[in-house]
Amino acid sequence: MISTRDQNRAVTADAISARTVWLGLLLVMLATAVAYKPGLDGPFMFDDYGSIRNNSAIRMETLSAASVLEAARSSHLGAKFFHRPMARVSFALNYYFSGRSYAKFDYKATNLGIHLVNGLLVFILTTLLVSRMMTSSSPLAVSSGSRPGIWGWLPLLTTAFWLLHPIQLNSVLYVVQRMTSLAAFGVLLGVIAYVVGRNMYDNARRAKGVVVMVMGVSLGSFVGVMSKENAVLTPLFACLVEFFFFERRALSGKHKRILKWCIASVVVVCAVGTLSIAFMRYEVLVNFYDVRNFTLLERVLTQPRVLFFYLGLLFFPSPSRFGLFHDDIVLSHGLLDPWTTIVALLALLAIMGFCIWGVRKRNLLAFGLAWYLVGHSIESGVIGLELIHEHRNYVPSFGIFFASAYLLIWSMERVRIRAVIAMATAAVVGVFMFNTYTRSLIWESGDSLHYFAVQTNPDSYRVQMGYAGQLQQNDGDIEEIYRAYQTAATLNPYNVLPVVRMQRIISGIIHQFDEGSLRPDELEVMPALADSYDDPLVFLPEHARALDQKISEEITFRLTNYAIDAETAVALNELRRCVGSWFSTCPSAEQIEDWVLLTLDRHHRVPEQTAALMVTLARLRTYDRDLDSAVGYMESAFEQTPSEVGLLIELALMYVDFNELEAAWSTTERARVLVESSGRRASDYWRLHEFLQERFEELSLQPDGTEVGESPSTSNDNSE
Known about the structure:
This protein is mostly helical. The chain has helices at 4-36, 47-53, 65-72, 85-97, 104-133, 148-151, 153-164, 169-173, 178-202, 206-225, 234-245, 253-280, 282-287, 296-315, 340-361, 364-375, 397-414, 418-442, 446-456, 461-473, 478-491, 497-515, 541-561, 566-580, 589-602, 607-623, 627-640, 645-657, 661-678, 682-698, 712-719. The longest helix is centred in the N-terminal third of the chain and has 33 residues, at 4-36. The chain contains 31 helices and no strands.
């Protein structure tokens, strides 16, 4: 029989353990902040430019409802619907509170703050699940003779794994991935609300429990989807918690039926949300594969290997294996091409079978794996997204870390070498922190980031492109820059952008030869003229001209034969800017126009990209002072994306450039209607509006072209 003194000691021990766990959580959060500190001053990367740096709509000058609405509407998808508005508004607020500037530290520190808040939610969710484990009948759950104190460490250990693992770094230091972390905030809130409501339901507060469950999951899904669409999976995560952690045998028939309807309504939330997103983005989803150089079948066959690649990163987190890009993954063209495809597929099916078995047995290892698979069900599914990104593990990794921490605690309770396991666990957490700190140091500057990436992942097309771009920014060696672009062009035989960059370098070299500022190399053996676009760079005029011709032919070949992706429009617009800036490193405007027309002939299903190509043509025509053709292309671009205010603003500026002020004014009036209905590009519109008003005042004219003080009717009579 246990004495009262012994019981009090046990209670005191558990209380001390609880206080220790909370202190441990504080230390883990502090360790996380330390690990990420070096990278908080690092550069913007990749999509950061399109969504933040080059997005005028998030330059919030005043804190008002109008500016918030404009930021929320700042997606390129236009006024059809809001696209991740919560994340976009947060970018605008960062700009505003950073003194109207793009303070990299402020943006990334905000991301770190969100990561820490999410870590707290992970801790709360895991604590709630441990509480359910204490009464669960699962064979692997806490036994009746267990001390609650040791299981009190499970939430802390799971949170430490989740916060400190280096796979989370891209979701923190890659600013635009705030979309991922804010979506995770909604997911975690929704699942926590479900567990709280479900506990109420078990404790006879059934009406309140149902309200908390349904409303909590619905609001969590909504909050998450406002930052990223995969938060629509929140109800499925809640269902996993229901099936693995809660029992329904003790409920009466009536209450079981109510609970079934509650679970069904939660699933309906997921289904309705998914169908709504699919309906609103139908054209985008249908056309995804038009801009990919892989098929639906190839994507589906490749993703099982991707999921095991992610697991490899989670369990063996060497810094050299991580990176912003993993586009060097080999496509699966069939079950045996490569042979690892069939192995990964069979292993994945086995895991799915284990998860289904685990639902009946309430096996918590199966729960972790099921959470992981559900979390990847959208981004590793049939939608034609890019094949692989580390940040996609932000929410799914919780399942793996929970299962791993559970297994460690379960082992410590049952073996005598508990201290050894505890020290090994602490060592693992330390390794996670060290590797995250190491990765953060690499992200400290563009130079270190790109140099490390090209050393550890030289077969990545995007790594080579980023490295070449960084070298150009630093005025690096022209031959090294050219080799990097050449390598990128070889690694990705479909994309036109690296070949365009190669031609610009060759064009600059030819220009230097022509003006006498560059002397030819003195070679003992004269090389044969280039017969392929990927021939080495030789500083001889004849060789450079031959290479230039081969590169032009390669650009034409790629535009003719391969999928037209977003980077194609970027490449052609880059050439257009080159011509407009009168640089010596660009081909003729006629050649560029031929390439754009060739691209348009093949590509017309993705409206945003088609519009971008037409805008490029319009700008080229302005250089020839051909206003009619330029206006025609701009109007065609607007027909492709009739909600894009920016096209009307640019058309108005085009009229201004030709001193057609009346046409410019009428175009701004067209833009005003869209601005008022959508709230997009309002600040750009008003700047243009004020500029035109000043121009009219300088010329003593009214917007309709009449002189100040003269009525339109008088003007018409005089003209007659």
